[in-house]
Amino acid sequence: MPSFSVSLLLLGLSSAASQPNFVLLFADDLGYGDLGCYGHPTSLTPNLNRLAAGGLRFTDFYCSSPVCSPSRASLLTGRYQTRSGVYPGVLYPDSIGGLPLNETTIAEVLKPAGYATAAVGKWHLGYGANGTYLPTNQGFDQYLGIPYSHDMGPCKNLTCFPPDVKCFGQCDVGTVTVPLMRNKKIVQQPVNFLELEKAYSDFATNFIVTAAQKQQPFFLYYPAHHTHYPQYAGTRTAGKTLRGPFGDALAEFDHTVGDIMAALEKTGVANNTLVFFTSDNGPELMRMSRGGSAGLLKCGKGTTYDGGMREPAIAYWPGTIQPGVTHELASTLDILPTMARLAEAKLPSVVLDGVDITELLIQQGKSKRETMMFYPTNPSELYGLFAVRMGKYKAHFYTQGATHSGTTPDADCPVFAVLKAHDPPLLFDLEMDPSEYYPLSVTGRPDLQAVLEKIRQVKAQFEATMVFANSEMSKGTDKNLVPCCNPQCSPKPTCCSCA
Hints:
Blueprint: H1 4-10, E1 21-27, H2 46-54, E2 56-62, H3 68-77, H4 81-84, H5 106-110, E3 116-122, E4 142-146, E5 159-161, E6 165-166, E7 180-182, E8 185-188, H6 193-213, E9 218-223, H7 244-266, E10 273-279, H8 306-309, E11 310-316, E12 324-326, E13 330-331, H9 335-343, H10 358-363, E14 371-374, E15 387-390, E16 393-399, E17 420-429, H11 446-465
Parallel strand pairs: 1-9, 1-10, 2-12, 2-13, 3-4, 3-9
Antiparallel strand pairs: 2-11, 4-7, 5-6, 7-8, 10-11, 14-15, 15-16, 16-17
């Protein structure tokens, strides 16, 4: 086997580019049909459109879970959330658990290879006692952001439109106002959402400039709050798009992407930087026009239909990744092993579910990923996988709707669509029927019977290797863990406030 350096040279990368920089952009609750480059007629996303036009746009890219925390755990570890225990559902401000510290993140893979690492934005992988689970304990040198979803606290300080029109809907879960963290310290509570994106942009830009001046390779992870409900936007975009609050929030995120790209170009490192964009899960359709769009895909957030887990994704690397569109299968799980390969970094000594897609990115060849597994929001060993995709075929062994996907006319999507087992499983050809409307009949079709049998075998083989870690969510909650900038104050939570 050739060394990493030789392998990269064979792929057309010069030895000078053997340690590229990485920028990982991760949107929130963004659907397959939400971007202009994926066909939305009124989304204002010129910077993401530019990445798509100059990079590789994926049509068959998946996250690992239809909700936030488990999807983020899998992105950063290259492992299904069932292995790390980040299930079921999501973590809350008072959750005792979080992403276990013995899990190895992308940042922890890259640091020993000499990389500077930073995270900016929404973490949502646990807070814990004294900030146990914050990014700076998970391989990141620096962090600026909110430790969980911005709806997990009173939203009265969210302003969505000028002049001072408060946000639509309710998001107060009876806890403290949302804090802004710098590393492990609360620097503002409640956070000023109207200035938050500028703070993120400045932080990201400064990180890039500093690393470039030191000629140090870097990894920047930007998990945005946009476009999670309730949407907010600062003065640059509020009220300035055709798509209303969702469009304004998306445009503000796109602005920050533009600022990051400008920093890469200004510092002269753009041609040695892989920029990868995708989203954590599908749109929250229960919010209607404020929840995003899955485009032609079925259902959305919370479900194992493609609308819940098939995401827009773009890989951009000028001079290395040729512009184009790929229909090859890929996943957020694949990002860690791919970045490790490109950085010549050592992989962790654990079972990885991701595959190296370097050849797919650089040569636009075949993907090493042949299958994708679909766990629900509440995975269990009793039910196992809900669905399996193999090649162009997807088989549903169980289906279930979700509260997040309510309000749609499709009766399969809302929470009223109760858990249902399918034997034989529902089989779809996603190339012919990406909307999962028309199950294939295997009767009298030996070819489809063979496909279904192969999928059953793949499912059984995978489940035989899956060891469920103890659930981090089952550790429960402790109100004393909720972030408070003045921890000795009383009465809580109202006294937790600082400039």
